[in-house]
């Protein structure tokens, strides 16, 4: 698990520390768009993430209180992830990035694979 500095030099630095992981923004995006999701559902939505990497990113998001992890006492275990209110506050910023990315892709004739 990464260690947070005691101080930052800029608010952007703090924000990137929270969501700057390779797949963190995507996890937050999909949890906001689709609601509560299980690990396998997130894996299908983010196919480039290895299980180990996705697990690490989820743990860091949970540690930073951006998502909640709910484990159900079943066999096999059922685990669901949900955005916290703190995590939901990131959506407007991610939506602006989404819109900018859409404009960029359209302007350059790049097609994306929707999941």
Would you write up a description of this structure?
This protein is α+β, with helices and mostly antiparallel strands and 115 residues long. The chain contains six helices and three strands, in the order ααβααββαα.
Task: Give the structure's gist in a few sentences.
The chain is an alpha+beta fold and 115 residues long.
Query: Taking strands numbered 1, 2, ... along the chain, how are they ordered across the largest sheet?
Result: 1-3-2
Bin the helical content.
40-55%
Structural class by SSE content: alpha+beta
Shape: globular
**Subunit arrangement of the protein:** single chain
Residue-averaged pLDDT: 92
Q: What does the main sheet amount to?
A: 3 strands, antiparallel
Number of helices: 6
From the N-terminal CA to the C-terminal CA, the straight-line distance is 29 Å
Radius of gyration: 15 Å
């Amino acid at each position: 698990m990464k260690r947070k500095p005691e101080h930052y030099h800029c608010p952007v630095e703090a924000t990137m520390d929270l969501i700057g992981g390779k797949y963190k923004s995507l996890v937050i995006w999909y949890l906001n768009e689709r609601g509560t999701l299980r690990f396998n559902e997130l894996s299908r939505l983010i196919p480039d993430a290895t299980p180990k990497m996705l697990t690490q990113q989820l743990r860091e998001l949970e540690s930073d209180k951006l998502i909640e992890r709910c484990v159900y006492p079943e066999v096999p275990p059922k685990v669901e992830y949900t955005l916290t209110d703190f995590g939901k506050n990131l959506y407007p910023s991610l939506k602006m990035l989404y819109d900018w990315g859409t404009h960029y892709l359209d302007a350059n004739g790049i097609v994306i694979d929707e999941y």
